[in-house]
Write a structure and sequence with these properties.
By secondary structure, the chain is mainly α. It has one domain (1-62, 74-156). The protein is built from six helices and no strands. Helix 2 (20-31) packs parallel to helix 6. The longest helix is centred in the C-terminal third of the chain and has 29 residues, at 101-129.
Length: 159
């Protein structure tokens, strides 16, 4: 149950920012906070994966502020977010040593919902604030905070 809830939370993060949740999971794996040793995803904690995912996350955070950034609701962007959510759900399941299908599915569904919901929330904030940029920064902070909080809870549950 905890794996599915964590997968949903990370899926919401993936719906807002495609690479933030995998980057946070990679650093948690690298630091030993999550144990993926002996699984198909143990490479996530390797020497390169955390850095590559962090660079992708930072590029996404920067690119998202551009008025020329493609809509997150288009098929390629939305599909990437759903895949990211499914990946994160599967990684959580492997770390918690539970069946991966339900958490992966939960992560994918939450990412789809987070894609639409995050867009609506950001547009509402942008309207209230009069500018998109501060709303985008708030969305970034919420995504990063939710990812870090979820991984902290998972790490505490693995002891």
């Amino acid at each position: 149950m905890i794996a599915t809830v964590a997968a949903c939370l990370l899926g919401l993060v993936a719906g807002a920012r495609t690479f933030t949740a995998p980057a946070v999971l990679a650093w948690a794996t690298r630091s030993g906070a999550l144990d993926l040793q002996g699984t198909a995803l143990e490479w996530l904690g390797g020497a390169w994966a955390p850095w590559v995912l962090t660079l992708l996350a930072l590029a996404e955070l920067a690119g998202d502020k551009s008025p020329r950034a493609p809509s997150r609701k288009t098929l390629p962007a939305a599909g990437a977010r759903v895949l990211s959510g499914a990946f994160c759900g599967g990684a959580v399941a492997l770390a918690m040593e539970v069946a991966w299908l339900l958490p992966a599915l939960a992560g994918a569904i939450a990412a789809a919902l987070g894609t639409r919901g995050g867009y609506r929330l950001r547009m509402g904030l942008a309207t209230r604030l009069g500018k998109d940029w501060p709303a985008a920064l708030l969305e970034d902070a919420a995504a990063i905070g939710l990812a870090l909080g979820t991984v902290a809870l998972l790490a505490g549950g693995q002891d």
